[in-house]
Design goal:
Blueprint: H1 12-25, E1 30-36, H2 37-45, E2 56-63, H3 65-68, H4 71-81, E3 86-90, H5 104-109, E4 113-116, H6 120-129, E5 134-141, H7 146-158, E6 164-170, H8 173-182, E7 190-194, H9 195-201, H10 206-213, E8 217-220, H11 224-240, E9 245-247, H12 259-268, E10 269-276, E11 280-289, H13 298-301, H14 317-321, H15 353-359, H16 364-370
Parallel strand pairs: 1-2, 1-7, 3-4, 3-5, 5-6, 7-8, 8-9
Antiparallel strand pairs: 10-11
This protein binds iron/sulfur cluster.
Iron/sulfur cluster binds at residues 314-317, 320, 327, 330, 332-333, 337, 342-344, 346-347, 354.
């Protein structure tokens, strides 16, 4: 069965029309960053950059939550997984992210009980089924996944579960966009904001970004036509010398997002400065469990400090995540670093830019990035 809103946004005729308008309107070089890893995959899969005027450069942002999860947090998860009596639950993508002492599959091979869950709420069910064990949920993600993690904590509290805790590394996207724009190395003329983040969190943080940095912010979806509509909106604003927030994903995004999801997140988490891997400390860029739910904070419950950790030298993920280089410009791309043997998180995650380029490496976009 064809999913509603999928085939409509892949129709060649509609795509040709929008492309025509982009070519007509574009008169100067512009650099546009898509924020979300899902958008990066669409751009790579459909070789969208090759359809655009030469003057438009697409660069890929830090929109892969697995990629920006700090190495220290991955090490904490590994330490907790190896604690006797602990069941560590996490999402599939986190299993293969290399930590300093190996990944979570290796921890499992050493006897750790590590389980892949598809929802944070699954970890609560595992805690109920295993009262003799301590269940730790290693939860990462943007505004999109934070609500289910918040619901898991609320459910554990309602059930008075004493064997459930949370190692959380949830991050917030708009502050990272501000940080990228503040950098002296910034190349971004316009943003395609992540549609699914806005579906949950709303759009209220974007007008300030657009105004402060004079950068158009186009809220964009994930199908090929969505991406082109986002680029068209960006080019139209840039060529007119204006910088506004524009919602080109109106079939999903409402101004105030999902109020119930936002309320759950606010109840359980507070906004804090947070370290993003490859980017550094992002002011107001993360979520920390509130003191009222402190008994569910794994970092308060266990001694899991990994000490000093250092990034693998060969990996250029920091530059990739800020859009300063494209994945195929990394000397290790496809050589020392592949999805089977990743050196960095962007090659592991299904949302990682390096994984997208590798998966669709036969397309023109990768050849162009090498030139
Ligand atoms: S290709 Fe591999 S080594 Fe290079 S930046 Fe990407 S993840 Fe890091």
């Amino acid at each position: 069965m064809t999913m509603k809103y999928q085939s409509e946004f892949r129709q060649p005729e509609a795509i040709r029309k929008v492309l025509g308008r982009i070519h007509e309107r574009c008169s100067r070089p512009w650099t546009i960053m898509e924020v979300c890893g899902g958008q990066t995959h669409t751009i790579a899969r459909y070789a969208i950059e090759t359809l655009l005027p030469d003057a438009i450069t697409l660069i890929h942002g830090p929109g892969c939550p697995v990629c920006v999860t700090p190495l220290a947090m991955i090490e904490r998860a590994r330490i907790l997984a190896l604690e006797p009596g602990v069941i560590l639950c996490t999402f599939g993508d986190m299993m293969r992210v290399p930590g300093q002492g190996g990944d979570l599959f290796e921890a499992r091979a050493r006897g750790a009980d590590v389980r892949i869950v598809t929802s944070s709420l699954d970890a609560v069910a595992i805690a109920r089924q295993n009262p003799q064990c301590d269940v730790v949920l290693f939860a990462v993600g943007f505004e999109t996944t934070a609500p289910t993690t918040a619901m898991a904590v609320k459910q554990a509290a309602a059930l008075s579960l004493s064997n459930f805790s949370l190692l959380a590394a949830h991050v917030r996207v708009p502050p990272a966009m501000s940080l990228i724009l503040s950098s002296p190395e910034n190349r971004v003329d316009a943003f395609l904001a992540a549609g699914h983040v806005c579906t949950v969190a709303g759009v209220e943080e974007y007008p300030d970004i657009a105004e402060r940095f004079s950068v158009p912010v186009i809220i964009t979806g994930f199908e090929p036509l969505d991406i082109l509509l986002g680029i068209e909106g960006a080019v139209r604003q840039l060529e007119s010398g204006v910088a506004n927030v524009e919602n080109r994903y109106a079939r999903s995004v409402f101004a105030d997002g999902n109020p119930l999801a936002r309320a759950a997140v606010s109840e359980v988490f507070e906004v804090v400065d947070q370290h993003w891997r490859g980017i550094g400390i992002v002011p107001a860029g993360g979520l920390k469990i509130r003191e009222a739910f402190g008994t569910f904070d794994a970092q308060q419950r266990y001694d899991c400090d990994p000490g000093d950790v250092s990034e693998p030298r060969a990996c250029m993920a920091a530059k990739v995540l800020q859009g300063l280089v494209k994945p195929a410009q990394c000397p290790e791309f496809g050589r020392g670093c592949t999805p089977e043997h990743p050196l960095g998180a962007p090659m592991v995650s299904t949302e990682g830019a390096c994984a997208a380029y590798y998966r669709y490496r036969s397309t023109e976009i990768v050849r162009l990035a090498h030139d």
